[in-house]
Structure prediction request, 169 residues.
Amino acid sequence: MPIHPCRSPPSATQLGELALPAEHFDSVVSVDSAYHFAPRTSFLRHAHRLLRPGGRLALTDIVRGPGRMSWFGEFMLARAFQIPSANWIDPATYEAQLRKLGFADVRVEIIDDAVFPGLVDFLERQSEAWHGVTGALPWAPFLATAAGLRSVVAARSMNFVLVSAVKPA
Prediction:
C-alpha cells in the first residue's frame, strides 16, 4: 500500500500490509499520534518487526495519569482526544507492553510540565485570535479544550510521555 503525503497515514492495523521487509528501518518515530492508533499495541508490534537489530523507537504519547476522574470524565477525555479505550493505560503498563513485544532499554518519561502549559496557552491565544477575527463561535472549541486540559492537568488524570526503546541486537 503506497503512502501518499497528502492523505491520512495508514492505521496501525494497515501497517502490517505495507510491502516493507522486516528489519528495514534504523528508527521509528511517532510524534503526538500513537495514542490514536487502534490499537497502539498493533503499531508497536509492527514497529518492532520493521526495526533492524539495535534500531530505536521514539514516541511522544498520552497515557492515563495517577489521578482519577469519573467514568463520564474519562469517557469525554477519550472522545475529545480520540483515544481508543485499549490505549488508556498507565506508564508502567505501557513499559510492560513494550518489553513483552521484545523491546529493551525501555523508558517512559512523564514530560507534562514541558508540554501542557504551552499547549493551554496556545489554545487560549488561538481562541482570542479567532474571536477577534470572526466574533463568532469558531473559537469556542479552542477555549473548551484549554479549559478541559487545565482540569485534566490539575487532576493529574492524563500524562504526556516521551517513550524510547531499542530492538535488541
